Amino acid sequence: MLNIAFIAHDRKKDEMVNFVTAYEPVFKEHKLYSTGTTGSRIMERTELTINRFMSGPLGGDQQIGAMVATNEMDLIIFLRDPLMAQPHEPDINALLRLCDVQGIPLATNIATAELLVKALQRGDFAWRELVHKYKPE
């Protein structure tokens, strides 16, 4: 079981809900996290249980980032809106940087999200299970 987070900017929330709905059977096998509104919207349309953090601008990105920093997050799907300035851009950049530092797979568009979910279906994330198994205390 992997820890997977969903984040979507306002104009990408419908796209995220449709994506997660399409892959609901895959995601139900994992522990799911999300920023506030995105998680609520997903749960309205699916039978998935999502552990929700605050909304992104109120610190939700940073809460997910804290899990990344401690190597507790395995995969993030963050559908960003590249055409709209975000008031919490520094938080977003910090999250992206943490994913790079920790080597956490991160999709920022639907095409990459699709590739990562297909890899998840094939079992290509088994190496993350080893990270959890041998995590130093």
From TrEMBL:
Positions binding substrate in this chain are 9, 13, 35-38, 55-56, 88
Q: Which SMART domains match?
A: MGS
Looking up PROSITE patterns in the UniProt record yields: METHYLGLYOXAL_SYNTH (PS01335), MGS (PS51855)
Q: Which GO terms describe its molecular function?
A: methylglyoxal synthase activity
Q: Which residues form a coiled coil?
A: none
Q: Which UniProt keywords apply?
A: Lyase
**InterPro entries reported in the protein's UniProt record:** Methylgl_synth (IPR004363), Methylglyoxal_synth_AS (IPR018148), MGS-like_dom (IPR011607), MGS-like_dom_sf (IPR036914)
What EC class is this? lyase
Q: Where is the active site?
A: 61 (proton donor/acceptor)
The record's listing under Pfam families reads: MGS (PF02142)
Superkingdom: Bacteria
Identify the residues that the record assigns to the MGS-like domain, covering every copy: 1-137
* Single GO cellular component term: cytosol
UniProt-listed GO biological process terms:
methylglyoxal biosynthetic process
Q: What is its EC number?
A: 4.2.3.3
The record's annotation in NCBIfam families points to: MGSA, PRK05234.1
Query: Family per UniProt?
Result: Belongs to the methylglyoxal synthase family.
- Function of this protein? Catalyzes the formation of methylglyoxal from dihydroxyacetone phosphate.
Q: What is the recorded name of this protein?
A: Methylglyoxal synthase
Origin species: Paenibacillus beijingensis
Q: What is the lineage of its organism?
A: Bacteria, Bacillati, Bacillota, Bacilli, Bacillales
Q: Which gene encodes it?
A: mgsA
